[in-house]
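User: Hi! I'm working on a homework problem where we have to compare a predicted structure to a textbook description. Could you give me the structure for the chain below?
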Amino acid sequence: MPTQPLLTTVVGSYPQPDWLIDRRELGHGVPRIRAQNLWRVPQDLLQEAQDDATVLAIRDMEQAGIDIVSDGEARRESYSNRFATALEGLDLEDPGFISGRGGGAATTPVPRVTGPIRRVRPVQARDVEFLRASTKKTIKVTVPGPFTMAQQAFNEFYADIKDLALDYAAAVNQEVHRLFEAGADVVQLDEPWLQARPDEAKRYGVEAINRALAGVTGVTAMHICFGYAVMVKDKPGRYSFLEELEDCVVRQISIETAQPKLDLSILARLPSKTVILGVLDLGNMDIETPEQVAARVREALRYLPPERLQVAPDCGMKYLPRRVAFEKLQAMTRGVAMVRETLA
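Assistant: Happy to help. Predicted structure tokens:
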């Protein structure tokens, strides 16, 4: 891991090329089951095309000056469904339906849980091996968290959704161990639904996270957010489930602060965690100036020392135009460089 203060990173996703994925279809929602209709490339050429798109994402991050890169999640239809639909115990052909994280009618198709959740094979190990072979940078890989996957399923098997979440956690635990073996430097759990379902999160969220990371010695992170900016416009100015994460074993907590204009005094309530601070508003196509980024970082430094602060976009950049995403990352690294100079 790099040792300088204020490391820059990404949350996970980066825009996929238009030749790879149909971005018009992408805008219809975040897939919970498989969405093969998104791909523009025939199935027999898809893995090679995804590999090429992955290299493009890595090179953009490197050129923008990012310290800890991801693979851009170029192989994924959504942040969660590549892993979530690879497990045993699910009916994907006859899905159930749930309401979205904001409530409303139950119109979102999701995996139907018909038996015990089990991981039967490595899912993302090759992704990590490819990423490791493609860059000399520190690398991060993301996996959907057990709480979020339990909320994104239609449960017809478990008497208590907590038990469903804990079996998802066991599957995630097996995968996380394998991802570190494959060469990951950081493994991040994506848990946006902790914010969306705070009462359930307070009942078993920390327990599920700790189960997912049991025995893991590598660097772990977790992303918690209010939802993609393209889907959620009016975001609250506070988290309904955040300081509770001080009690979990995750070492780094990734939060969005730019679009919701979060009061950063909450950072003082995570005294043992490294915070990955979201400083890029992904709901705004305007490119932040380095000075704007620097101001957001300096505000966070009122509550955290620089060695416990990393800097990132608010959320995944999947839904942005590629040019906008790249220029935002450039502005971010330049703003961080300005703050590093004053620290030196």
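For your comparison, note the following. Residues 23-343 form a domain with the TIM Barrel fold (CATH 3.20.20.210). Strands lie at 68-69, 88-100, 103-118, 138-144, 154-155, 186-190, 219-224, 252-256, 274-278, 309-312. Good luck with the assignment!
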